[in-house]
Write a structure and sequence with these properties.
heterodimer, A: 0% strand, B: alpha+beta, four-stranded antiparallel beta sheet
């Protein structure tokens, strides 16, 4: 249970880091041209929702 | 050497554990990294995330989306110039507030449009936007969530969840967490995650105002 909560907390933290806050003059889009990072962002969103479901069932 | 910007702060002494780059009357927190350091590096992401959390413990700041890098003080000021006045007003107004987020998993995931079925990128983007905005949660839960964490902004993030972001006074964070636990007991069938405190993210983003 603790591991799941830690995983969820980390996913949520990274989700906020990558997908929240002010975008300064499109800089984030330009700088994160790194395709791997974009995929990482997408996986975080999906994993995050699944993790919320898992913890809610316990 | 370049610097990865984390946020904008009202006072220099709000920043510890990161560089403080002056930008007008504000200060940007930033971590120095090598020019060839990929921003997608896992260790760098985790270091920025840890620093961000520690900075929020000291004082509320404007979160800047990960990915902004600067190489000098003048570049920092130039890139942020259009925002500085607005940020200062927000920071003065919300010095004692933080954001909290309630992410709700929708009962049904809306199917993501298939790119191959569209003849133009614009059509596809419109369909993607429509699919994201089609996600909804129970009206009774919505009302209860607003009562628990406060009236905020509902945001469509993806095809599977909705988020309520609210401004919460720092000294009310524990009360809101307790209200979240009560919400969980009242709606055991609704998967949701109450998280925070976070810096000013949604409420600093002009696009969601």
């Amino acid at each position: 249970m603790n591991e799941t909560l830690e995983e969820l907390s980390l996913l949520e933290t990274l989700d906020h880091l990558l997908d929240r806050g002010v975008v300064v003059a499109g800089e984030a889009v330009v700088s994160i041209g790194d395709v791997d990072l974009l995929y990482l962002g997408l996986n975080i969103v999906l994993a995050n929702v699944d993790a919320v479901k898992r913890t809610s069932k316990r | 050497m370049k610097s990865v910007v984390i946020g904008a702060h009202l006072r220099r002494d709000d920043i510890e554990g990161a560089d403080a780059i002056p930008a007008g009357e504000l200060f940007l927190s930033a971590l120095p990294v090598a020019d060839d350091q990929p921003l997608g590096d896992r260790e760098l992401l985790l270091r920025v995330a840890r620093t961000r959390a520690a900075l929020l413990d000291r004082a509320t700041f404007i979160a800047i989306r990960y990915g902004l890098t600067v190489s000098s003080e003048s570049e920092a000021k130039t890139k942020c110039a259009a925002h500085l006045e607005h940020w200062r007003a927000l920071l003065e107004r919300h010095r004692d507030d933080v954001e909290m987020t309630l992410k709700v998993v929708a009962p049904e995931r809306v199917a993501r449009p298939d790119r191959r079925e569209f003849t133009s990128g614009a059509e596809y983007l419109r369909a993607l936007h429509a699919a994201t905005n089609a996600v909804d949660v129970d009206a009774e839960f919505r009302t209860a969530a607003e009562q628990a964490i406060g009236m905020g902004r509902w945001l469509h993030r993806d095809q599977a969840s909705l988020e309520l972001a609210a401004l919460v006074a720092r000294d009310a964070v524990e009360r809101v967490r307790a209200a979240g636990e009560e919400l969980k007991r009242r709606f055991p069938g609704v998967p949701f995650l109450l998280s925070g405190p976070w810096p000013l993210e949604v409420f600093a983003d002009a696009h969601s105002e």
